[in-house]
């Protein structure tokens, strides 16, 4: 756990270097508050949250001398309040055999890696996990998932590049049900020719899935790359038009100067943030903790 927080902090500290520079003991006057507001917006927190935080400072400490520690403590508290309601762990339903998880997101956000890490985690817990290499679009995608499968001891249902993803998903569901697997993780293509091709592909996968089990998918996780900053907001909007997103996974928080985007996401969409990615290794996926994240973000 220590490793995780230090990694997250190292990543997030890049977000707060500028904040720290602003606060080497200053009077909270209009000018300082405006600067702070600008910095919060530049840190991707979004204007709504930034405005609320500034109003809070104005109400409680206007005109007073404040130390950077005091500022950070208040900031962390306010940010944690925004994050708390969305910090919801991902919990597979043990009565489902399998709990079907569809993983979506634009290309390169970390879908396949997140699936591999999730498979690792639940295998460690002794659960049976299966994966479907539903990204039949990209050449190396199948192999990438198979490597994860071998590493963590979880079968991968796959076929050739260019094969029908929906048919493959159907096979995967059938096999996972026969084997009474606990968890079925389904990878999807991030990039198709265009948005309508992606929409069709996802809709078809879900339609075919429901022929086998009308309650599936039980979770639809949207994977977002924190380093893309404000783009993540647009990705949530687009994917919610395509599928019923049940929760978010935010990756690359180890190297990101854009951790603040998680605050804007929480504020705008109120979708559960189940997991965060803090590296490329199997262990580098953790439940999202509002307080730790807020503290890491402001460097307190
Ligand atoms: N530093 C860091 N790298 C990550 C993290 N998650 C994924 N990556 C890396 O990001 C790159 C893309 O990850 P993938 O899992 O292949 O992404 P994807 O969404 O499956 O991409 P497509 O299949 O092309 O749509 C890989 O090099 C991963 O190792 C993370 O949390 N931190
Ligand atoms: Mg992939």
Kindly describe this structure:
This protein is α/β, with parallel strands linked by helices. About 50% of the residues lie in helices and about 15% in strands. It has eleven helices and ten strands. The chain has helices spanning about 1-20, 30-40, 45-60, 70-85, 110-125, 140-150, 165-180, 195-210, 230-240, 260-270, 290-300; strands spanning about 25, 65, 100-105, 130, 155, 185, 220-225, 245-250, 275, 285. The radius of gyration is 21 Å and the shape is elongated. Bound molecules: guanosine-5'-triphosphate and magnesium ion.
Percent strand: 5-15%
* Helix percentage range: 40-55%
Cα separation of the termini: 18 Å
Averaged pLDDT = 89
Radius of gyration using CA atoms only: 21 Å
Low-confidence stretches: 1-5
How many separate helices?
A: 11
Could you state the order of secondary-structure elements as H and E?
A: HEHHEHEHEHEHEHEHEHEEH
**Total count of strands:** 10
Hetero compounds: guanosine-5'-triphosphate, magnesium ion
Q: Which of globular, elongated, flat, extended, rod-shaped describes the shape?
A: elongated
Question: Structural class, judged by helices and strands?
Answer: alpha/beta
Largest sheet: 8 strands, mixed
Strand order of the largest sheet: 5-4-6-3-7-8-9-10
């Amino acid at each position: 756990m220590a490793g995780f927080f230090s990694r997250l902090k190292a990543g997030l500290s890049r977000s707060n270097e500028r904040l720290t520079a602003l606060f080497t003991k200053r009077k909270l006057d209009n000018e300082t508050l405006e600067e702070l507001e600008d910095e919060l917006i530049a840190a991707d927190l979004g204007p709504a949250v930034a405005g609320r935080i500034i109003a809070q400072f104005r109400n409680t400490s206007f005109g007073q001398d404040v130390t950077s520690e005091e500022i950070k403590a208040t900031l962390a508290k306010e940010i944690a309040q925004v994050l708390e309601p969305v910090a919801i762990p991902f919990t597979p339903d043990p009565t489902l055999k399998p709990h079907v998880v569809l993983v979506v997101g634009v290309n390169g956000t970390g879908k396949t890696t997140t699936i591999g890490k999730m498979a690792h985690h639940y295998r460690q817990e002794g659960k049976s996990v299966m994966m479907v290499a539903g990204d039949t679009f990209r050449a190396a995608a199948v192999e990438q998932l198979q490597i994860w499968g071998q590493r963590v001891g979880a079968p991968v249902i796959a076929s050739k590049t260019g094969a029908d993803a929906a048919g493959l998903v159907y096979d995967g569901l059938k096999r996972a049900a026969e084997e009474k697997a606990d968890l079925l993780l389904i990878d999807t293509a991030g990039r198709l020719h265009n948005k309508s091709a992606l929409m069709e592909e996802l809709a078809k996968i879900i339609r075919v899935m429901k022929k086998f089990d009308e309650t599936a998918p039980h979770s639809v996780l949207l994977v977002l790359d924190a380093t893309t900053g404000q783009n993540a907001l647009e990705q949530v909007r687009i994917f919610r038009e395509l599928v019923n997103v049940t929760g978010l996974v935010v990756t690359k928080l180890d190297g990101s100067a854009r951790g603040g985007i998680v605050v804007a996401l929480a504020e705008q969409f109120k979708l559960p943030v189940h997991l965060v990615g803090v590296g490329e290794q199997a262990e580098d996926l953790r439940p999202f903790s509002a307080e730790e994240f807020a503290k890491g973000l402001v460097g307190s």
